[in-house]
Amino acid sequence: MADEPLLETKDLTKRFGVRRAVDGVDLAVGSGEMLLITGPNGAGKTTLIRMIGTLIRPTSGTIRMAGQDKEDARARRRVLAYLSHDTCLYEHLTAGENLRFFGGLNGVRDTAVRTAEVLESVGLSGVEDRRVRAFSRGMKQRLAVARVLLGEPKLLLLDEPYTGLDPAGRRTLTGLLGDLKARGTSLLVITHLIEDCLPAADGICVMKTGRMISRISAAGRGAGEVLEEYEAAVAHG
Amino acid sequence: MADMHAGPSYLRVAWLVFRKDFTEELRRRESLFSAVFVALLSVVLFRFALDETLVRFDQTGGGLLWLVALFAGSLFMGNVFRKETESGTLDALLLCPVDRSAVFLGKVFVNMVFLVILGLFLWALAFLFLDLRPQGGFGAVLGVWALVSVGYAVLGTLFAALVTPLRGGAMIYPVLLFPVLTPLFMGAVRLTDLAIRGEELLKSPWLRLIGGFDILFFIVALALFEPAVED
């Protein structure tokens, strides 16, 4: 892992009225690292990831990407991508039209070539001209993954990406995430299904009432040992 | 490897958003077709409800058509961001490394084009059902229509962005939008009446009012869009 983290947040806080949705979170994600964020509903996980993704403005604290001198939201958007349980696709457009549209906005120069590449990488070659509304949930999720791969992001933010997927779809997604990690992409994954991601994960961050209560190392450890520590953190947090 | 460059230009972003929205709307056939149906129904009702011996359409036609445009136009403009939030695509749009006001501009363009299409349709209906024949020709009334459409599209798009995250946003949309549009539509009615009667438009104070309204709110809306969609 590089000395300087790819992403670093310091004392990151978001208040909605008097409620602190995220409360002084310090987080560092290294290059090629995969961190899981988990915790009960309302813990502030989605708010945290949406602040990192420039979708919500923090109340206080800082978010910094490696190689960027200042907090520049637009510069940050150049190196990250976001995938939620919503597939974020236009159902009335074809798969190719969706990818060429987002490719164009993300500054991909030869969108036609890149579209074919990413479709092939998610096993959707041959459906470029089909409208998304005709796709199954699993196909849509794979196309959503293709969308976020278009610009080859350094950091991928995932918010409950397994929602609505059957076991085969979950295995496929886990495989795709593992491939991305192997290629050096950093991943920050919000999930309740930590066992699905654990083989590829480097750590688990546990959040509760807006605070980061524990960070558990998972690299090189057995799943049972990690899960035991995780359950203890949740119980005592 | 993806071949990346500095990013698309401002106008390229607006064009991509415009083309995507236009294609999508033609395939969905929801918002624009609802507006066209409302327009058709309204003009047909005017034809049968208003007594031609009491109401002269060459004097009231402008007001009637703008009234229809106000309601029919808000049907599709109010949807321009709601459909993005329903599918989750608004997040994907806002996460692209582009100036977000260019995304807004693309949405304004598509609403302007739909308002002009609605105007062409309404004037064709007015010609057929109300026997409305502008003495200055159709060029003048359509020119006024296009000019007013700029301000209407700008504010209609901005308010659509503002109300989209709100519960009951579709209900609040016209309540918030229509009062702000009042000066624009007063000018629109007056200027359209002048165009119908074939009178001079360029020296009219209503033309300056509409032009000033368009420029002012165009600048304000571009500046307000990013804070409006963040949080």
Structural overview:
- Chain A has 237 residues and is an alpha/beta fold.
- Chain A has helices at 45-52, 73-79, 95-105, 111-121, 137-149, 167-182, 194-197, 223-236; strands spanning 7-16, 19-29, 34-38, 60-65, 80-84, 155-159, 186-190, 203-208, 211-217.
- The longest helix of chain A is centred in the C-terminal third of the chain and has 16 residues, at 167-182.
- Chain B has 231 residues and is mainly alpha-helical.
- Chain B has one domain.
- Chain B is 78% helix and 0% strand.
- Chain B has helices at 10-28, 31-49, 57-77, 82-87, 89-94, 100-129, 138-163, 169-196, 205-229.
- Chains A and B meet through helix 2, strand 5 and helix 3 of A and helix 1 and helix 5 of B.
Q: How many helical elements of chain A?
A: 8
How many H/I helical runs of chain B? 9
As an assembly, this protein is: heterodimer
* Low-pLDDT residue spans of chain B: none
Approximate strand percentage of chain B: under 5%
The span between the termini of chain A is: 29 Å
Instruction: Using the 3D structure, state the CATH architecture of one domain in chain A.
Output: 3-Layer(aba) Sandwich
Order of helices and strands of chain A: EEEHEHEHHHEHEHEEH
Low-confidence stretches of chain A: none
- Helix percent band of chain B: over 70%
Overall SS class of chain A? alpha/beta
Characteristics of this structure?
heterodimer, A: 237 residues, alpha/beta, 35% helix, globular, B: 231 residues, mainly alpha, 9 helices
What topology does this entry show?
The complex is a heterodimer of chains A (237) and B (231).
Chain A: E1 7-16, E2 19-29, E3 34-38, H1 45-52, E4 60-65, H2 73-79, E5 80-84, H3 95-105, H4 111-121, H5 137-149, E6 155-159, H6 167-182, E7 186-190, H7 194-197, E8 203-208, E9 211-217, H8 223-236
Helix pairs in contact in A: 3-4, 4-5
Chain B: H1 10-28, H2 31-49, H3 57-77, H4 82-87, H5 89-94, H6 100-129, H7 138-163, H8 169-196, H9 205-229
Helix pairs in contact in B: 1-6, 2-3, 2-6, 3-6, 3-8, 6-7, 6-9, 7-8, 7-9, 8-9
